[in-house]
Amino acid sequence: MQGYFIFMISNIDQIKAAANIADIISPHIKLKKHGHNLVGICPFHSEKTPSFTVTEAKGIYKCFGCGKSGDAIQFLIDHENLNYIQAIKFIAEKYNIPIEEEKKTYEQPAQRLEKLQPDTIKYFEGRGISNNTLLRFNITETTEWMPKSNADTRAICFNYFKDSQLVNIKFRAKDKDFKLAKNAELIFYNLDSLQDETTAIIVEGEIDCLSMYEAGFYNVVSVPNGAGTGNQQLKYLDNCWQYFDDKEKIIIFTDNDEPGKNLKEELARRLGKDRCMFVDYPDGCKDANDVLLKHGKGMITSMVEQARR
Ligand code: ZN
After folding, report:
1. How many CA atoms lie within 13 A of 245 on its CB side?
2. What would the 3-class secondary structure string for 260-306 be?
3. What spacing in Å lies between the alpha carbon of 167 and ligand 1's midpoint?
4. If you measure from the C-alpha of residue 47 to the centroid of ligand 1, how many angstroms do you get, rounded to a whole number?
5. C-alpha closest to that of 204 among 257, 271, 276
6. Does residue 61 surpass a pLDDT of 90?
């Protein structure tokens, strides 16, 4: 097993908490008191009467003219053309907060190259996934100790690549028995597909990602650990932010249930609401794979085409 490390800012939360939104915005826009808020002429659309509203207590701005909204970081990204990390560094400097860097060490998992067994290929066929797609995504199989069955079990390997390097593996056995490789970097599945694209689509699971490919969309990534429950940490987003930096449009295609909706909200908040679009599911469908199976590729295409803010 090979190790490698990357540097990450470990006190991002402390830096974010220090930012006063009026401090950040007022050098760029003249703000006037208006009740509990501050208002000014919106820098994002052309207007004569101020509809750009800053709520200091909540640390947010919102324009009632064009709908642009966000926090201090989002303002720096949208108005000053900084990326996420540059915005964090700008705030740290402004408030004299030393940046703490943490060296994160990850292990590169050993490759599992066993070919898929006929019954696995059949399983995928049943989910509408062709052999061609399985090959394209380098899906393999292995025998691995799995947590739920607490035994060595046959498991499908969803291989996670970053810059063509294998950095993680999601092992998936029967009955929702799955795990990620130990001490491996948490990233989006199919991350490399976002390079040189202006649009990204985010789904909730690997099979949804494969379903999107079946429908002709390749610039699709899936979150590595589903929608989860409770607070959304989105550690994988911290590891991958630079892949989203240059995206003009991000279509969020998470599951059609409560956790999926919460994940959608959190992803949009972190990635910037202005460039995020959302899909409407047909009745009775829970995820992209379900849509593929019940309505076919055409329905996925029209959901993407009709994605809206
Ligand atoms: Zn505006």
Report:
1. 14
2. HHHHHHHHHHHHCHHHEEECCCCCCCCCHHHHHHHHCHHHHHHHHHC
3. 42
4. 8
5. 257
6. yes
Dist. CA 67 → ligand 1 center (Å): 6
**From ligand 1's centre to the CA of 206, what distance in Å?**
38
69 C-alpha to center of ligand 1: Å?
9
Q: How confident is the model at residue 77 (pLDDT cuts 50, 70, 90)?
A: confident
Residue type, 95: Y
Phi, psi angle pair for 237, to nearest 5°: -70, -40
307 Cα: distance to centroid of ligand 1 (angstroms): 22
More confident residue, 59 or 232: 59
Average pLDDT for 66-84: 88
The pLDDT of residue 138: 95
Instruction: Give the separation between CA 154 and CA 195, rounded to whole angstroms.
Output: 33
pTM, entire model = 0.79
